[in-house]
Amino acid sequence: LRQKLVQDTLEEMRTGRQDSFGFEKLVKSVLQSLGGENVTIVPRSKDQGADITALFTVADTFSFTVAAQAKHYRETPEVPPKDVEQLRDGMDAEGATLGWLVTSGTFSEETEELKNEIEDETGYEIQLVDGEQLAALIVDGGLRAASLTEDE
């Protein structure tokens, strides 16, 4: 049942009526569902490579900002390496050392290699979350329905 729900969610993300703005709202909702606070969609006019920022606090002591880049893709083409570079630039602009490149699609091998290079060079931690992983997060963790209807 879980796998069917994940595949149905993935298919809806890729082929449903959602546009890039709706996908950003979906990623915002997932970050909120994971415990993110002050989750904000960066206005496109101020977007320097991070579409969404979120504050996470561990044990009421340590806080860190996550910068996320949301890419609404089908299964093909794969997310190209330039999107990791955009995320790195957004992390720099937002003062974040943790990044999330999330897509409804898949990542190219070159994108994964560049992610590793950027991590080695900068000390940043970047997670690549593909469509299937995102769908599983939604199915396993649910979403805060109210956050999907909020106006930005």
Please explain how this structure is put together.
This protein is an alpha/beta fold. Helix content is 47%, strand content 22%. It has six helices and five strands. Strands 1-2-3-4-5 form a five-stranded mixed sheet, sandwiched between helices. α1 crosses α5 and α3 runs parallel beside α4 (109-122). The protein starts with a helix and ends with a helix. Residues 145-152 have low confidence and may be disordered.
The counted number of beta strands is: 5
> How far is the first residue's CA from the last residue's CA?
34 Å
Helix run count: 6
The strands making up the biggest β-sheet line up spatially as 1-2-3-4-5
Shape: globular
Keywords:
152 residues; alpha/beta; five-stranded mixed β-sheet; 6 helices; disordered C terminus
Short overview:
This protein is an alpha/beta fold and 152 residues long.
Task: Give the SSE map.
Blueprint: H1 2-15, H2 20-33, E1 37-41, E2 52-58, E3 62-71, H3 82-94, E4 98-103, H4 109-122, E5 125-129, H5 131-141, H6 145-149
Parallel strand pairs: 3-4, 4-5
Antiparallel strand pairs: 1-2, 2-3
Helix pairs in contact: 1-5, 3-4
